[in-house]
Amino acid sequence: MSSRYYHAAAGAALIAAAALTACGTGASPGTPAAAFNTADVTFTTSTLGLEEQAAALGGTVTGHTATPQLQQFAAGMRAQAGDAQRLRGLMGDWHQPMPAPYSPGASLPAAMTGAGMMNAAGWAEISRQHGQSFNSDWLNAMIGSYNAEVALCQQELGSGASPQARALARTMLAQRQSGLAQLQQWQDDGQQMGMMG
To answer: What is this structure's pTM?
Structure first.
């Protein structure tokens, strides 16, 4: 898979593992504290970037490929749009700084430069592709994104303190593993080579 589109998913695990030492309440003085730690913050911040990138990738399918499988997959991704809202909601509950909305191809803020994130060159290339070349690079990018999300969810379940974040990670993990299996099947079988562009 091309490094233009994402770093190794193991990087997400390293980022999260390095953020397990501090704990916080995230609540204003005099208000009930919501238990969370830096593993929870790493999970929400990093996963939010990947979620917004995946949504942007889903939006590129229309106009770049006529492959029904990818069009259907992208349509299914839109049903998961609420995950990003839930991640932002958790960050708001903890009074954590909210990252700027993701902008495809723009320079990424430090919080969004981890595993699975595409760089500007990757976006420029995939944006001008159509048909078979688009299908192949789109699958690579989505597999990288989902691998990184799976790693983050697993780290959250192993080290997170927030019951709400852990519950969201559990739901997202099952969904992303299912989607990843489908994407990898298309890639491993070479099925995308037989898809109509």
So the answer is: 0.80
Cβ-proximal residues to 86 (8 Å cutoff; 6+ apart), any chain = 168
- What CA–CA distance (Å, rounded) separates 57 from 123? 9
Q: Was domain 10-194 assigned CATH 1.20.1260.10? A: yes
Both structure tokens of 13: 């695990």
Q: What is the pLDDT of residues 130-182, one digit of tens each?
A: 999 999 999 999 999 999 999 999 999 999 999 999 999 999 999 999 999 99
What tokens does 82 get?
């609420």
In our burial notation (b when 16+ CB lie closer than 10 A, e otherwise), range 4-13 reads bbbbbbebbb
Residues 6+ apart with CB under 8 A from 54: 77, 142, 145, 146, 149
Per DSSP bridges, beta strands 23-24 and 36-37 are antiparallel
CA distance 154 to 158: 6
- Cα separation values, 42 from 4, 46, 90, 192, Å: 23, 6, 12, 34
CB distance 33 to 101 below 8 Å: no
DSSP 24: E
* CA-based end-to-end distance of the chain: 20
